[in-house]
Amino acid sequence: MELTEQQIERYSRQIILSDVGGKGQMKLAKAKVLLIGAGGLGSPAGLYLAAAGVGTIGLVDGDVVDLSNLQRQILHSTATVGLPKVESGKKTLSAINPEITIKTHHQNVDSDNILSLISQYDMVLDGSDNFATRFLVNDACFFAKKTLISASMFRFEGQLTTIKPHAGYPCYRCLYPEPPPAGLVPNCQEAGVLGALAGTMGILQASEAIKEILGIGETLADRLLIYDALDMKFRKVRRPKDPACPLCGQNPKITNLSLDYTVTCTI
Length: 267
Fold this sequence. Notes:
- About 35% of the residues lie in helices and about 15% in strands.
- The chain is of the alpha/beta class.
- It has a single domain (about 30-240), classed as 3-Layer(aba) Sandwich (Rossmann fold).
- Helix 7 links the parallel strand 4 and strand 5 (about 145-155).
- Helix 4 runs parallel beside helix 5 and helix 4 crosses helix 10 (about 195-215).
- The longest helix is centred in the last third of the chain and has 20 residues, at about 195-215.
- It is globular, with a radius of gyration of 18 Å.
- The N and C termini lie far apart (about 35 Å).
């Protein structure tokens, strides 16, 4: 497989980067990335992955477009209110880059379907808005040995990390061993979120995914990036591997997806 003249023209500004080149562009074309959630984080991440030429992008989301989504979920428009988010998202991504494949999964992830879903892809980007889904996705990617790019946001602050314990790095449970009690942490509907913050964090997710696909740059697999939009500050903190982690530690207590993962909403 070689790049066509049209592809060379489309990706020319990217191909001339010494860390990308034609070989790197081919890696992107062969990559398969699953987005958990076609909302605030999945929107900008999906847009830039599609524009970059990632060959296969999967969208999984069981929700439909609501007017209140449009403040931050830029995959969608007023014209697609009421449509499944995955179908609205596919239209937008296909319009940006008709050469790539967009797979849609109009469903919520749960312990019964997630392993089957992620088995179709090389990498997973988590854009969910609740701890239950984040833990489910983390655990599933651990068992499937899939690299996970996880982002979250709350009001004016965002967090980002790369998770790949199969390469010797910590998992999400090394940072947060267990989900907080239900109702302790408000979701997006209760706490609110700055729309532009979703754009920042989703684009950072896409950037990290592209780096992982190409094998370039410094990984975030042992760091947590924290962004404060009000003070315009970025900082990175070390995220060490926990020997007592219930999932990836020396004596794991979690050996399958039999836990009760209660899923609420996605961003």
